[in-house]
Amino acid sequence: EQVTFLGAGMYDHYVPAIVDAITSRSEFLTPYTPYQPEISQGGLQVMFEFQTAMSELTGLPVSNAGLYEGPSSVASAGYLAMGATKRSRFVVSRGLHPHSRETLATYSVGYGAEVVEVGLDGGVTDAAALAAAVDGETAAVFLQSPNFLGAVEDVEALGAAAKEHGALLVVACDPMTLGILKPPGEAGADIALGEGQPLGNRLDFGGPSFGFFCATEAQIRRMPGRIAGETEDVDGRRGFVLALQTREQHIRREKATNNICTAQALNALAAMVHLAWLGREGFRELGELLVRRTAYARERLAAVDGVELLHDAPVVREFAVRLDAPVDRVLDRVAERGIAAGYALGRDYEEFDDGLLVAITERRTPAQIDELAEALGAAIAAERGAKVADNATNAPQSTSERVTA
Amino acid sequence: EQVTFLGAGMYDHYVPAIVDAITSRSEFLTPYTPYQPEISQGGLQVMFEFQTAMSELTGLPVSNAGLYEGPSSVASAGYLAMGATKRSRFVVSRGLHPHSRETLATYSVGYGAEVVEVGLDGGVTDAAALAAAVDGETAAVFLQSPNFLGAVEDVEALGAAAKEHGALLVVACDPMTLGILKPPGEAGADIALGEGQPLGNRLDFGGPSFGFFCATEAQIRRMPGRIAGETEDVDGRRGFVLALQTREQHIRREKATNNICTAQALNALAAMVHLAWLGREGFRELGELLVRRTAYARERLAAVDGVELLHDAPVVREFAVRLDAPVDRVLDRVAERGIAAGYALGRDYEEFDDGLLVAITERRTPAQIDELAEALGAAIAAERGAKVADNATNAPQSTSERVTA
Amino acid sequence: MTLAEAPMQRERATTIYEKSKVGRRAAVLPDAGVPETPIEDLIPANLLRGEPPNLPEIAEPEIVRHYNRLSRRNFDLDSGFYPLGSCTMKHNPRLNERVAALPGHARLHPAQDPRRAQGALELMWLLQESLAEICGLPSVSLQPSAGSHGELAGLLLTRAYHADRNEVRTKVLAPDTSHGTNPASVTMAGYEVVKVATNQRGGVDMDDLRARIAEDPDQIACLMLTNPNTLGLFDENIEEIAALIHAAGGTLYYDGANLNAIMGRTRPGDMGFDIVHLNLHKSFSQPHGGGGPGAGPIAVSERIEPFLPRPQVVRREGSGGPGPGFDLDFDRPRSIGRLRGFQGNFGVFVRSYAYILSLGSDGLAETSETAVLNANYLKARLAAGRAGERLPVAFDRHCMHEFVLSGRPMKNELGLATLDLAKRLLDFGFHPPTVYFPLLVDEALMVEPTETETKESLDAFADAIEEILTEAEADPELARNAPYSTPVRRLDEVRATRRPVVRQAFGAGGGDGGAAAETDFDDATSPADSDA
Amino acid sequence: MTLAEAPMQRERATTIYEKSKVGRRAAVLPDAGVPETPIEDLIPANLLRGEPPNLPEIAEPEIVRHYNRLSRRNFDLDSGFYPLGSCTMKHNPRLNERVAALPGHARLHPAQDPRRAQGALELMWLLQESLAEICGLPSVSLQPSAGSHGELAGLLLTRAYHADRNEVRTKVLAPDTSHGTNPASVTMAGYEVVKVATNQRGGVDMDDLRARIAEDPDQIACLMLTNPNTLGLFDENIEEIAALIHAAGGTLYYDGANLNAIMGRTRPGDMGFDIVHLNLHKSFSQPHGGGGPGAGPIAVSERIEPFLPRPQVVRREGSGGPGPGFDLDFDRPRSIGRLRGFQGNFGVFVRSYAYILSLGSDGLAETSETAVLNANYLKARLAAGRAGERLPVAFDRHCMHEFVLSGRPMKNELGLATLDLAKRLLDFGFHPPTVYFPLLVDEALMVEPTETETKESLDAFADAIEEILTEAEADPELARNAPYSTPVRRLDEVRATRRPVVRQAFGAGGGDGGAAAETDFDDATSPADSDA
Ligand SMILES: Cc1ncc(COP(=O)(O)O)c(C=O)c1O
Ligand SMILES: Cc1ncc(COP(=O)(O)O)c(C=O)c1O
Q1: CA B38 to each of CA B31, B213, D95, D274, D493: distance values in angstroms, whole numbers, following the listed order
Q2: What is the ipTM of this complex?
Q3: How far, in Å, CA of D189 to CA of A106, rounded?
């Protein structure tokens, strides 16, 4: 099996065996949405516990029970913001995941919003440009922290512009970093959301995972997706039900706050079990472990001849470097050693076509990191050699024939 | 993964996914012996259903809920026979699995029985020798069908001697063959038992699996192991309990009919689920498939230069051949092609040191069988060549350095 | 403790947070194995978190017990009959779980170089081909995450298609029987919904349809149809409907939630549909998971193909390696773009493709035939008994895979609401049908047995309905106060909407659990209403 | 149907045979792909079966439902507290299940050439080394399948050891507190049991021991001891006991079922034991599986080693390959031979070794310390309450990992038998302790909490006992008729022994279900008695 330093939103974490043991139980695996609460208390209580966990992570009081995945959650936040502000202009940081930006754009064509992008400076969102871009027509400002380049954004500072103009501040985040980073809610976010895969879910070539979506009290009746609520039964017993169904398509139809029906309940359960397994202390410790191993990896790679940091902003678990050799060819060479060195930033950022995004998890040992550094160094050296040869005889490199993704 | 033709008592069958799905449920995986029937009806009913299935397979009215595995079940049958007949002499066919014969011998030293072995003739038990060996002191006659060489024994005919002298007839059998072969009970066996692994259990390098043990009504109070029985509760509801506990060590202590306590309940459940999955028709069809593919394989191999049948007695799913080249070396050569050609009979039968035992399951396709034939032919030819070379220059073959098992 | 009280009723709901104790834990993490630099030296303090989040503090044994116990407070498909109309609660073969869990699938990173993900891409391509064949349409995108996501995709495709022809259309037609996600998707896609009436036979009212079109032909962007529709009835005029919509220049959208009725027997493409979504978690046996995951692939006609989402899985002849290669094609200039991250719910694709392979094309046809047979058998069983009078079928025709009953007579004559019947069914060990949907049927009960149920299950269900109606004739209170045997009994859903408590309160910091101000619409509709 | 009736009580037991219908099936087999020769042409008709066995005819959905429903009729360790004395019902880490299922383990054929099974053999060798270290003895055989199998092995080893010295000894000493398997194994090994009395402190009565030995010193083959014994008490005279037995020329056998009390704190080898069996399904977390599988490896002293069963897993330096190799050693001339087929319950070895690796030696010591602490805490909790008078501890000393209460006062004063208390505990959601064992304690209750239980579980259990005793003071009938909330209530166990029905009857051929004649001993002891 390949040793992977690929991240870009989905990460190769260790998932404890109890996650499978619990999610594979028929009682969780085979029922549908808990429309009949009397016989669905298990699933409903899991939703309630999950909502509590996500609310704790993000520092926002209201969480739903999960959406499809990250990028479509961003698009749903846009729809909510339009309803909440009666405005239709989005200001989006270029640090937001490219898939999120593209999905938001796709949806915007439908519900009729305009998307304005703000660039990066030194790896983080250009604060001045952002402030300039936000105006009285702006429905929401979209940030991501850590952003796609792994850089931790100063959400609080950047968010000021949004507050000033009455726009909602939407922050996409990596849940695994929230044991370390200030919760978006504390930094002024109105909505915090993101891709849930790092919590208890397999890579599965990209899905199924889930999206989490948290907001302020003010938005509770505009939330997308299922929400479990605590209540009592006729005998006064504590119980849980689907709350605020009056937001939903099956009740409100064309007036619903979102069109989602089947979501990702089982994946949210996996996340809850993983979080319970990590626990309050373990979750923070894992965050610290990621920060330290990532700092180590960043240093090791920066020391490699032909590798330099793409930015030196603070990072938690992922960072970007520039390679002094064609990234695709270097990736190919390193892959021959059973290592996926990372994500080629050129896929999404023409300005970073020499960029490589490297992700660290607790499964990536210091020894593997050392091997990556060594392999990268060797590959770059080899490519430089090949280049020289190239220029001599203009023979095309077979390794350059690659199916681009 | 290697394509294996190894059998010798444990077979590489396809186990349906529902077996794992059911046996991995905590409610089956984590409780202990059902001493408290009110909260153990699940496990007790499974035992009852399992007993019914084994009783149906063997054609004997009484089955227990399972013992450790095959050979120790044979030894337990010996202990039962001594108690039932007040005699202490066992007559054992050499066709009985070598592990069973050795285990019976080990136990016999303890409970003080004498073991007399009867040889094979043409692959099956020497009827005359058997008849001669059985006498008025004989507690039990032990046969296996299909025997270790894969040959189907005429249990009825061989058993006559036992009947005549009032000895118990104990027949070890492969449960997977009982959709095809006459049930031991119908052939006069007093006890039918065997290794349960082929039913729903992994190979697991030899365990855990389970042993099944069925007998006539007459022996019900001498049975070893747990037995579930049907009864009623105070409200007249149908229920199940551990029946005949008065045979057992926890009640009878030194007078118990056996010392077994923890057995292999979960493995018996796996067998029951597998049998339910196969079903009445599927179980017979699988037997027919085994008979036909085995007949095909036997023919293909017999046609290979340097291979001849070790016996031509009827077989169900395993057969024996002789190789005109050192078996171990041939196995090594074939193994290099990712095939385990079978079991070297020389391990247990000096008289068959050129013998190879080949097992077929539904997972062994005709194509794999053809490849085996081809590989065996090539390996034998190569060895003959090597031998010639050998004799010329007395160079030792590195392939002959093998850790013997 | 009353003797009678069922153990689960005795056991009051306790959350995992309430079970946690300071200092307990399950996870033991590896050492970082690198310098223990203070975090503050690596990340500025103002960006750091103060207190860790209040996650549970609990060890593995209690985690396992907690969730195992919770699981027993669920009724699931493997517990019994689950005729939840429109949801196709068919058996989930465990083989599919096994193949989906193979490391080559489960551990494959979504950003893996396609040249090193050929197996996964080939599976996706083969699934696309199979679904295209099943739908009778040339092209498929697997990207949408569920049915409603597919609907949105279909509407965005419609918009792109018209825009490409420099047309701007604003209206989407949908029958009054349509599923809630249809109108919700229409609004989300920036269109206006125009309701079309249902005729006496439960199909689209053709006159009304013509009228709606006539009002403003060149504003008609699309007609969204479910066929068989949510009444379980196949629309006899489908070809004429298609002709009318196409003549008006609109697209015809097929809500495939009911595909289980027609697989291998007829194809949306042959009926004239331009865009189809399928629910892999319904027709193709992906387990429902308590509300997902699912997947909602879309199949489209040639004229829609250019606008499909990016990336598309494609097969390229001789791309370097031996034989054809599979790849992700991003180079689609007219595409509507992405609908989500990466390539879709791949794990669901594996299960669904395994399901298709297990059945083969004959098996799929047999699946639909049996689903329809089961529905008609149960419909007939019910018509014969008391249900015949108290719970008449809403539209008395042969149904497809499901049928809809009306509880109106039961309500008028016995004072029993459909909800009461549903709750009483819980005591008999059945999951109730979908209730109060479709909206045009008064006190509706929507029953979908699926092909994987035995005659015994269907009979037992019919017998239970009969018994409930019988006991109600004697004493309607019995059902009105049901259920009795469930862990909790009727729950106060209005309160959960009026004053929602949506998270655990932790006293300090935890807030009051998110009680929110009431709003005008909070009980516009009784929360008791629920549907698929 | 009474409203109160718990759903599981309403659901009457129905076997899978009763659910089957002719022609139904789950399995679809591949074609043989070879000539369809009639079976009669391949096997003589007189050796063939007539009718196929009456196996169920049922499809996968109903198989899954059947066994899922049955599973819910079990109380399991993951449902709640399971203080079944002597059985060490500790949490079963799910990680162990995952590693045991790895294909390299699960799909390895037992007859595989050892050179191609090096991983499995190395794991077995490492486990042998670990267990040897834990026991303080040089050699280990993993072959025995469970504890009682290990006991038999130990006695056969003793016989071989003496035979090797041309001694014939006939008697095996065992305390009256010994577990039933001990005397049963003794008889099976051809020895005679000699009971040794228990003293006031719950240990071996030294005078009685001396007397028994004195009777016939050179007939003493072995003393079987559990230490801590089944009273949960550590024998203070263990060294003197060892000396006496060794002086008499006997072997000292350690029943390791209670190892969970001493791991990493003291070692049987250091106490002078010659032979030890361990129960991997107790101390080393192999799930109990409803009654197995388990494994009962034995550790032995140098003088016993030559007689160990065949084959032994050995490590050979430089056997061809690079580094040491692992092999199965059959060349053991003085071995007692095989006790079973192949190499033992390998799957259990994988789980147990994973458990040992997860804990490490410190973790194992902590395990035993916590097990002992939990037992003493619960013992103290109970002594404080009503149990203090009604259910006094049988021997009032600090206990090890378990302790034994006597229900005698409860019976005399409240008319409540230990069995009644046990049944009432079921209504409170607890598995009862082991009852009526050890035999020398009147109305015994044997309580083993294990280290994986929380203080809350222990407190809840103590509270339940208090509540039951309180309610019994008011109305003893309550407990005498318990349980009330279980799927079935008190079952007629005597009938199940007097007229056993041990299989499903199928009318024709199926026989009457195996009713058997009564025998003299069928209720020599009340079947209500049960133990670990
Ligand atoms: C008729 C119909 N259309 C659409 C949907 C929405 O599908 P999904 O829940 O997969 O979003 C459903 C499912 O509930 C449905 O029944
Ligand atoms: C003290 C004691 N000895 C021996 C045994 C027998 O062990 P096993 O059940 O593994 O055969 C047990 C288990 O019940 C026991 O508790």
Answers
A1: 13, 26, 31, 41, 11
A2: 0.95
A3: 79
Length in residues, chain A: 405
pLDDT in tens, D429-487: 999 999 999 999 999 999 999 999 999 999 999 999 999 999 999 999 999 999 999 99
- Ligand closest to Cα of C146 equals 1
Residue D476 identity:
P
Which of helix, strand or coil describes residue B324? coil
Contact call for C16 and A207, based on CB within 8 A: no
Nearest to C402 by CA among C148, C227, C241: C227
Using CA atoms, how far apart are residues D278 and D284, in angstroms rounded to an integer? 9
Ranges of H-type helices in D72-197: 94-100, 103-106, 118-135, 147-164, 181-188
Contact: B6, D112; criterion CB under 8 Å: yes
| pLDDT per residue as tens, chain A (405 positions) | 899 999 999 999 999 999 999 999 999 999 999 999 999 999 999 999 999 999 999 999 999 999 999 999 999 999 999 999 999 999 999 999 999 999 999 999 999 999 999 999 999 999 999 999 999 999 999 999 999 999 999 999 999 999 999 999 999 999 999 999 999 999 999 999 999 999 999 999 999 999 999 999 999 999 999 999 999 999 999 999 999 998 999 989 999 999 999 999 999 999 999 999 999 999 999 999 999 999 999 999 999 999 999 999 999 999 999 999 999 999 999 999 999 999 999 999 999 999 999 999 999 999 999 999 999 999 999 999 887 776 666 544 444 333 333
Give the closest ligand to the alpha carbon of residue C294. 1
**Residue pair D74/B40 in contact by the 8 Å Cβ criterion:** yes
- Going by the DSSP 8-state scheme, the letter that residue D268 receives in this structure is H
Q: How confident is the model at residue D2 (pLDDT cuts 50, 70, 90)?
A: low
pTM of the shown model: 0.95
The token pair at A311 is: 């930015």
Tell me the C-alpha distance between A403 and C397, whole Å: 55
Q: Which residues line ligand 1 (CB under 6 A)?
A: A 261-262; C 86-87, 146-148, 179, 181, 226, 230, 255, 257, 279, 294, 296, 532
Q: Where are the beta strands (DSSP E) in B145-263?
A: 168-172, 191-195, 211-215, 228-232, 238-242
Distance between CA A343 and CA A323 in Å, rounded? 12
Q: Which two tokens stand for residue A388?
A: 């020289």
Q: Report the atom number in ligand 2 closest to the C-alpha of D230.
A: 1
Taking an 8 Å Cβ-Cβ cutoff, which residues of chain C contact chain B? 64, 68, 93-95, 97-98
D320: exposed, middle or buried (Cβ count in 10 Å: 0-12, 13-18, 19+): exposed
Inter-chain contact C97–B17, Cβ cutoff 8 Å? yes
Contact B311, B123 (CB under 8 A): yes
CB distance B9 to D341 below 8 Å: yes
Token pair belonging to C474: 């004697």
Give the strand pairing for D251-256 and D220-225. Answer: parallel
**H or E stretch including D363?**
helix D346-384
Residue D413: other Cβ atoms inside 10 A: 14
Q: What are phi and psi of D177, to 5 degrees?
A: -85, 0
Whether residues B30 and D92 touch (CB distance < 8 A) is answered with yes
Closest-CA residue of B relative to C98 is: B17
B298 phi and psi angles, rounded to 5 deg: -60, -40
Beta-bridge partner residues of B212? B194
d(CA A27, CA A36): 14
Residues of A with Cβ-Cβ distance to D98 under 8 angstroms: 17, 20
